[in-house]
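Long-time lurker, finally posting.

We've been working with Amidase (Variovorax paradoxus) and I want a structural starting point before designing mutants. I don't trust myself to interpret raw outputs, so I'm hoping someone here can both generate the structure tokens and explain anything notable. Sequence follows.
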Amino acid sequence: MNDLHATRLSLLAGGSDARTELERAIDVSQSAACAHVFTRTMFDEARQAVAGVGTETRLAGLAFTSKDLFDIAGQPTSAGSVVLSHAPAASADAIAVARLRAAGGVLTGRTNMTEFAFSGVGVNPHHGTPANVSDAATPRIPGGSSSGAAVSVASGAAFIGLGSDTGGSIRIPAALNGIVGFKNTARLTPADGALPLSITLDTVCAMTRSVRDAITAHEILAARRVTAGNAPLAAYRIAVVKNVFFDDIEPAVAAAFERSLKRLRAAGARIEEIALPELAELATINATGGFSAAESHAWHRLLLERSGAGYDPRVAQRILRGAGMKAHEYIDLIHARRDWIARVEAALAPFDAVLSPTVPITAPSIASVAPGAERDDEFFRINGLLLRNPSIVNMLDGCAISLPCHVPGELPVGLMLWHAALHDDAVLAQALQIERTLQNQ
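Top reply, 14 upvotes:
Generated this for you. Predicted structure of Amidase:
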């Protein structure tokens, strides 16, 4: 499946045209592969929009999708819920949507998501759960919370899936679907017009089919240029943190990760194993519920009082945990995080990036975690495993990219390359080299 860059080059060379590419995307969007992917489609609007877009624009009239928590002018923003289905229509596009449109992207629809973005699994009891495209025999979870956005990209329905990442909501579904997900340093992309989960941790970002497309999407969303360079892998010093990230890892994930390290070392990468004892402090730091619970409860408390019965019970349970956090506990959390970030940044300063498994498991079946109290224990076990690794980077206020490291015939496995805040360009430069090396294995 061609990425955005290759498709745009074909458009410029006359090998295709934007209308044809849009109809291909719409055909996929209407296929069984995209069941439950969209909460609302915009195909007629997209057909009208593509007529006015030139191939000289950065996105050249190619399709993108938007997670249901972003405002789109003239539509209510329901964030995967039913309790907001009658909310007033947005008066303007979210900044992220507006920037993608201004760059020549054509929006084909709003994508399904975990209700209010509060889970890494991707299950939605209101709109159904989109199935991971990697296994035709067993419907598997897409990962969340940007579930529909991931499947739209992995299936070929879109070139960019606009989403958000609070504890891994871009990187988890990217890893489980075998695509690329880049979580930039949060402050680089504006969240105006996006319904919040955590104002401290939320990051506006996207999923794509390649690292070079991830760079393009980030440059548009952040209104900046990435300086990636072309240094070889041997120019970088990369760490592998051995504690926490590999706990409870599935054999298939461990094998893919070790195979990737071997390949990268053979290509000249200087990879060193280190310990990061500061990771053991996170459970204590977040013991009172963490930022997501407190900040989501502040946003939802009145809506829960009026319409709590309409919430996904699993989501409501997590939001309500924030009701018990005291003001001094929230302030202590802010200070503890700031101190923790400073010490972790100092530990990582000698390295250009860190490599980890994005998540320690492959995608389980939807049936094993489907809505139902009898499956709640398994749902929360899986959710904890999926969030654990990527959420460390959010707590760090860092940047990270997940790229596929499996081989054909295997379920998708993600390789996460990450570092502290504002190391975005270095992470992307290394990701280009790593992607090139792994694709040649």
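Before you design anything, note these points.
Residues 327-348 form the longest helix (22 residues).
The mean pLDDT is 97.
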